[in-house]
Amino acid sequence: MNNLVVFRPLFFIHVPNVNNLVCVILKVKNVDPEESSRQKQILKCRELIFTEPTVIATPLLWSVSEFQVILQREHWQTQKFQTRLERMDLRVLDCHPAAYSSLQSCLQYTIRAKLAPKWNQVGTLLVQGREFLKCPDPLIAVSKCIVLVYIQILSLKF
């Protein structure tokens, strides 16, 4: 008999006001020609995610050395954060108001990065465990779908 149990939990979180957020495009400087640019891009993106708790980020697919970061405007303007970027050898290419699409992609990548290596992405599923490829037994897996819905209520007077 199959003991498969399917749960369909649904979670809601408060999405910050994008008017208080900025999207910063960063470029990895001084990439060694012997080293993979894409690997350096991912490592720097993940380093920033794990060292700055108020930051979410994602590598940009159309570039091998750039990634985008979403953070609060106040945090972006601090000397501490600017110094961190200099120490990490990152150059600011652009800074503009955040959009919900950027917020969603950065949130998805950051959640996946923070869940690893205890949860690994396999297709559309997250599979529990580090040695999931070697395990002959059934494994726990979950499907994740992150969707940001922005609803603005307008009051119209006639």
UniProtKB/TrEMBL annotation:
It holds the Pfam family DUF4708. It comes from the Eukaryota. InterPro entries: DUF4708 (IPR031643). Residues 10-143 form the DUF4708 domain. This is Uncharacterized protein C18orf63-like. It comes from Limulus polyphemus.
